[in-house]
Every structure is written in structure tokens, then in C-alpha cells.
Design goal:
Layout lengths: L2 H7 L8 H37 L2
């Protein structure tokens, strides 16, 4: 069985393979996690700059 066959046997009613939907959902979750980590990093950087500016 080839990988193309394995993709074609599991699909939803609209014809989109389940694995592609799962991959898309995993990508969206990872993207959100990266955005949250970026926000945390920017906040930590801003706090460090504030503390550095006060001489602490």
C-alpha cells in the first residue's frame, strides 16, 4: 500500500483527508504556542530593559 492510498482511505464527507486536517490543526496549535512564547519573550525583554534602566 502506498502513501497515496493511505491518504485516500481515511477522508471526511467533504473529501479532505483526515491526516491533512490533523496536520493543519497541529500546525495552528504550534503557531499559537509560538505566538504566546514570543509575547512572553517580548514582555521579559521589556521588563529587563526597565530594570536595567533603573540600575537594579
Amino acid at each position: 500500500m502506498s502513501w497515496t492510498h493511505s491518504f485516500s482511505i481515511a477522508s471526511l464527507d467533504d473529501g479532505v483527508p483526515v491526516r491533512l486536517i490533523e496536520a493543519r490543526d497541529a500546525f495552528i496549535d504550534a503557531q499559537r504556542a509560538l505566538e504566546a512564547a514570543r509575547d512572553d519573550l517580548l514582555e521579559a525583554h521589556a521588563q529587563t530593559n526597565r530594570l536595567w534602566g533603573t540600575g537594579r
